[in-house]
Amino acid sequence: MNDFRLPLGTIVEGFIDYITETFGFLFDFIRAVFKGAFELVDVLLVSPPFWVIIVVAAALAYFTRGWKFTLGTVAGLVVILGVDQWENAMDTLALVLVASLLAIVFSVPLGILAAKSKVASRIIKPILDFMQTMPAFVYLIPALILFRVGVVPGIVATIIFAMAPGVRLTELGIRGVDHEVVEAGQAFGASPWRILRQIQLPLAMPTIMAGINQVIMLSLSMVVISGMVGAGGLGAEVVASLNRIDVALGFEAGLAVVILAIYLDRLTAALGTGGTPLGRFFGSLRRRPRAVVAAADDVPARTHEPVAV
Q1: Which of 105, 104, 124, 137 is nearest to 210 (CA)?
Q2: Which DSSP string corresponds to 147-195?
Q3: CA angle at residue 62 from 58 to 64, to 5 degrees?
Q4: What is the pLDDT of residues 126-136, one digit of tens each?
Q5: Is the pLDDT of residue 224 over 80?
Q6: Residue 145 near residue 178, CB atoms below 8 Å
Q7: How far is it, in rounded angstroms, from Cα 12 to Cα 3?
């Protein structure tokens, strides 16, 4: 019995070797696209003077949560600047923004597909369970083989690790839309695409935004792991402090990660509320389905009026 062993690891290794040799050109293309996107965002964050970024971040904070959040944002970013982690923080923010955007682009359509099809939902759920329970370090092994050392393996591992809640909460939000509202749209001849765009997505927006919030938070939690594969930023500083047992550097880099996490968490969480200008804009999207149904209700009434002869 002790000699019994399933060669699962060998099979996976052979599969990775096969796709590396067969589709190497494709992974080189993906690497170039991801790296180019990261470098573009990084230049936009690093090139301007620090006060420009602080002003932009403070403006976003004010229009989403008000002046208290604005003061906290300015104070937090000044702390990052004061501990000499500004450039590393911008590198990390660029990585998180790119990885989060790609994870959202992948997860929201998958969530819609899972909400629309029970078969797709049954297939996607076990895959999401696997993605969420597999240790994040394991993702780095094939990512390093396929994309080599640098920022791209960190982005890929972050996407895989972070997209699960986006899929789950998108599916949950769409499935939670009142069936009577959907049936009203169908009764008035609305196409499935229009029902999705003007009824289901707006009404599911708070739940979808909660999923996006979780995607961003999980992306930030991968910062340190990404630093282990050469992604740079605050993750590299934390890894360096661990190797040197440098408590001061580890605390400063960790504090910068916490400040970024709090800012992004509060910012994305506020977009689904109606208390501020941006919040009212996103909140108005949830009121549109009522107007659509009401407008559709008037159309048959007008088209079926008796015509005088």
Answers
A1: 104
A2: H-SSHHHHHHHHHHHHHHHHHHHHHHHHHTS-HHHHHHHHHTT--HHHH
A3: 115
A4: 988 888 787 77
A5: no
A6: no
A7: 20
